[in-house]
Amino acid sequence: MSASQTSDVPTLLVKIFGKDRPGITAGLFDTLAAFSVDVVDIEQVVTRGRIVLCALVTEPTAGGEGELRATVHSWAESLRLQAEIISGTGDNRPRGSGRSHVTVLGHPLTAEHTAAIASTITSTGGNIDRIFRLAKYPVTAVEFAVSGTETGDLRTALATRAHKIGVDVAVVSAGLHRRAQRLVVMDVDSTLIQDEVIELFAAHAGCEEQVAEVTARAMRGELDFEQSLHARVALLAGLDESVVEKVRQEVRLTPGARTLIRTLKRLGYQVGVVSGGFTQVTDELKVRLGLDFASANTLEIVDGRLTGRVTGEIVDRAGKARLLSRFAAEAGVPLAQTVAIGDGANDLDMLNTAGLGVAFNAKPVVREAAHTAVNVPFLDTVLYLLGITREEVEAADIHED
Question: Is the pTM of this model over 0.90?
Answer without folding.
Answer: no
